[in-house]
Amino acid sequence: MRDRLTLSMRASHLLALVFVAAALALAAIGAASGDTFYLRLGTEALIFAGLALSVDLLLGYSGALSLGQALYFGIGAYVSALTLLKVPSFWLAMAAAGGATLLASIVGGLIANRVRGVYFALITFGLAQVVAKVVYNTRELGASDGMIGIPVIEIGFGPVSVSAGNPVGFFLIVLAIIMGLYWLTAYLLDTPFGRVLTALKANEKRVPFLGYSVWWARMFSYVLAGLIAGLSGALYPMLRGFVSPELMFFATSGNAVISVILGGVGTLIGAIYGSVLLVLLKSIIGSWTEHHLIVIGVIFMVCVMFLPKGLVGFIRPRIEERLLAGAQKPAAPSFAPVRLEAGSAKP
Amino acid sequence: MNALDYLQFVLAPQVVNGLALGVAVVLVALGLTIIFGMLDVINMSHGEFYAIGAYAALALGAAGINFWFLLVLVPVLMVPLGMAAERLLIRPVFDSRDRHVTTLLVTFGLALVVEDLLKVAFGPNTQRPPTPIPGATELAGIIVPNYRLFLIVVGAAIVSGVAYVVYRTRLGAMVRAAAFDRNMAASLGVPVALVYAGTFAFGVALAGLAGVLLAPIYSVFPTMGRDFILLAFTVVIVGGMGSIWGAVVAGLLLTQVQALASLVISPVWTDPIVFGTMVAFLVFRPQGLFGRLGHA
Predict the structure, then answer these.
(1) Do A301 and B104 touch (CB under 8 A)?
(2) Global pTM?
(3) Helix, strand or coil, per DSSP, at residue B60
(4) CA distance B275 to chain A (A)
(5) What is the nearest CA distance from A283 to chain B, expressed in angstroms?
(6) Looking at the domain assignment, is residue A202 inside a domain?
(7) Which of A62, A107, A130, A215 to mutate to probe the B interface, most B CBs <10 Å?
(8) Is the CB of A122 inside 8 Å of chain B's CB atoms?
(9) Which of A71, A120, A122 best probes binding to B when mutated, by most B CB atoms within 10 angstroms?
(10) Which member of A142, A222, B126, B288 lies 3.0 to 4.6 Å from B221 by CB, making a disulfide possible if both were Cys?
(11) A88 vs A106, residue with greater confidence
């Protein structure tokens, strides 16, 4: 079966392969030159790419704009940090962060999914803001300073182990996890249940007439997005050795939304490209002025107004055309449906 | 301490302070709710327009312009700014498929830019203009700063004035008609494009006016808008998006909840309580206290 979504996801997968190749090249160059700075920057971009991925899952598929996704990112980071301070185990920290964000996103989902549209955006915004303020004022969680002194851990895979302090090794682990989350999301969207999610964005009123529960679909996508954000957040203290309430603030959620818009809404891989692009922009602009938000804000506004599909949304249709042309060649011409699209009339 | 003393020295001052904050929140929420009710646009940069108003008051006040004159001058200066923002940012995406999300994102971008521009222009530090009306008055045994009394009175006057214009004048009828059915309004001769731009500018001017009025109490700093906007949005949601009376009732109610709750529990937890009130409203009465403006 070939439909638009399968085709566009295949195009996304191609772009994902390009991304992984580029990341591996960076890792190889970094390992050869003994660089730490760019690898660490790249790792951070990947971690925030996970957060952006979760925003895109909500905005691009079920059509719900979350302005507080940093809440789950922050919960993941804090739980991971607390676990690592007690037991320096990578797997335990990831499991604890995953469990905590799962619970938190179920609670958050029960609240936020009562409403939709702008109310959903404002509720998620408020939820994150309130929890961030509570964390900011709780002395046990380090209050406004956050928590420091999280140990550098050894990440064990059976007999082999990699130190989180090793820039190349940790970069590769984060790359594997984030791309794994990308693959998982893409896979779930390709299942019949995933199609219900896409149907929500297209026409929510018709979904119940087809026998599907809107509430469950919205809830599932919300919890999945929370989990993705939480697992990405859990990696943050391993990289930086500290967590701070800023991780839950609106700036973090806002950056994820900016990444998704820059990269392309509803493309999944766009969120990852967007996140890297944002980090690049920030470090380039940041090298001549500390007021980089002016430039990023302007780029963001221009993007929303004139390039609403973002970078990947601009590139992907061209790849889709290629894929379509490639797929149609072996098919018998008498069965091929007539397509009146630009580029499909090639001999 | 007996009950009467508690009432006079603990409860009453808290209620009055809550009232002053309530008026402040209502002033900010008023512009927000008008822009939403009339234009169906979520203005995420509303807090930044409020900050611009406060900074304009600070800068012009430092240049020697009288506070009373600023109360008129700053909102007037905000009008072209609001018109330009509507023309350049809102109108191009006004007819996009998902207007709510698109306009929210565009104004969010604007908020980022404005906040950083304010930092460039005025520095990151907190500043505070002098209080225009010094001193305090004793009212029934409670000592209230004069400026807060003034704020409560002026705030009430502004809200009544706005409500009068929107609900009782020909201009207000035109605006409500344009919000209700813009094609019908246009065919009856209402200049819809101008009405939309004017409404947005009016909301922005209200935010600027709130900035001038509140700067002497709450200080001026680049992120002041962001800190205030959550409360303002909460008020707008609880009151019913787009309802003027809803914003007034919800604003006063929520700030009283906040003020009185902080007597009993740590002030840290008042935000969750206020937010919890909003959640409860969304669960049991999603349309808010009152219906939408122009959508009776």
Answers:
(1) no
(2) 0.86
(3) helix
(4) 7
(5) 17
(6) yes
(7) A130
(8) yes
(9) A122
(10) B126
(11) A106
CB B210 within 8 A of CB B50: yes
ipTM of predicted complex: 0.85
For residue A332, tell me if it sits in a domain.
Answer: no
Range of the domain at B186: 28-122+137-220
| Host H or E run for residue B138 | strand B136-139
pLDDT single digits (tens) A227-274: 999 999 999 988 888 888 888 888 889 899 999 999 888 888 889 999
Is A326 a member of any domain? no
> Quick check: A293 contacting B, CB < 8 Å?
yes
The range of the structural domain enclosing residue A275 comes to 4-321
Q: For residues B24 and A223, which has the higher predicted lDDT (pLDDT)?
A: A223
Q: Does A28 contact chain B (CB < 8 Å)?
A: no
pLDDT tens across B33-74, in order? 889 888 888 899 999 999 999 999 999 988 888 888 889 999
Could you tell me whether strands B136-139 and B142-145 are parallel, antiparallel, or unpaired per DSSP bridges? antiparallel
The answer to whether the Cβ–Cβ distance between A122 and B237 falls below 8 Å is yes
Please say whether the beta carbons of B230 and B112 come within 8 A: no
Is B290 near chain A, with CB under 8 Å?
A: no
Closest in B113, B233, B268 to A134, CB measured: B268
Span A171-184, average pLDDT: 91
Chain B residue with the nearest C-alpha to that of A113: B283
| Whether the Cβ atoms of residue B262 and residue B270 lie closer than 8 Å to each other | yes
Q: Tell whether A125 is within 8 A of chain B (Cβ).
A: yes
- How far is B106 from chain A, CA to nearest CA, in Å? 5
Query: Beta A154-157 vs A160-163: how paired, if at all?
Result: antiparallel
CA distance B249 to B163: 13
Q: For residue B17, count other CB atoms closer than 10 A to its CB.
A: 16
Q: Does residue A343 sit within a domain?
A: no
Backbone phi, psi, residue B127, to 5°? -125, 160
Tell me the residue type at B132: P
- Tokens at residue B203, please? 């909301």
Are the Cβ atoms of B109 and A301 closer than 8 angstroms? Answer: yes
What pLDDT shows up at residue A122? 83
CATH number at residue A172: 1.10.3470
| Out of A24-28, A320-324, B252-256, B279-283, least confident range | B279-283
Distance of alpha carbon A129 from alpha carbon B198, whole angstroms: 32
- In this structure, what DSSP letter does residue B36 have? H
